[in-house]
Specification:
This protein is of the alpha/beta class. The chain is built from 8 helices and 7 strands. The model has no long low-confidence stretch (mean pLDDT 97). The structure holds norvaline.
Length: 202
């Protein structure tokens, strides 16, 4: 009865099983491992503000979660560099020539064209909330970190954000932040995705 199905769920294996039995395209609306629709919007937002993302440096500060994993897929697809800094014990599992890992988040942000982060605790991991709040306290994107990035660096966040945790209010509400355009672009990029899947046009 449907032309396209979007599934937002937890383990990636759930959507993989679903897609293997589906005769129509299945869009990943978010899993524990990946969040491709978000990164389509994020890459589009970067291009819309600053031009091609190829050859640029994106700094990911915080949890190596679904959004971070998908930034890595984007780096491999669009050919840009991903600097990742996570607290010890939360490192990105996948190794790639597109990723450089940094123990110090300031170093990851240094010279970046885009600084981005996400909540310290993703959906489904709420039981780890207190522990993560302690582990991530030095991984906040604040004004000092934005100063280490390029002068015209953008700040992005997939939202909802926790001001005072992963991002300082003055950054998310400041002039380098494009979070509202980024949120609006979820609509436009997902319309493009549907068009591509339904009528096959790029
Ligand atoms: N990493 C977050 C993204 C929310 C849009 C989560 O999975 O909860």
């Amino acid at each position: 009865m449907c032309d396209v199905i979007m599934v937002r769920t937890f383990e990636q294996s759930i959507i993989d099983t679903f897609a293997a039995s589906s005769r129509v395209p299945v869009i990943n609306g978010l899993t524990n491992e990946y969040h491709p629709c978000q990164i389509l919007a994020d890459v589009f937002t970067y291009i819309d503000h600053r031009g091609p993302i190829r050859g640029k440096t994106v700094a990911w500060i915080g949890d190596s979660n679904n959004v971070c994993n998908t930034w890595l897929q984007a780096a491999e697809t669009f050919d840009f560099k991903l600097n990742v800094s996570t607290p010890p014990g939360y490192e990105l599992e996948k190794k790639s020539k597109y990723v450089e890992s940094f123990a110090d988040p300031m170093k990851a942000a240094t010279g970046a064209d885009l600084v981005t982060t996400d909540v310290w605790t993703s959906m489904g991991f709420e039981a780890e909330n207190e522990e993560r709040r302690r582990d991530f306290q030095d991984w906040q994107v604040d004004a000092e970190m934005m100063r280490a990035a390029k002068k015209d660096a953008l700040f992005m966040h997939c939202l909802p954000a926790h001001r005072g945790e992963e991002v300082a209010a003055e950054v998310i509400d400041g002039p380098q932040s494009v979070v509202w355009d980024e949120a609006e672009n979820r609509l436009h990029t997902q319309k493009a995705l549907l068009e591509f899947l339904v009528v096959g046009r790029k």
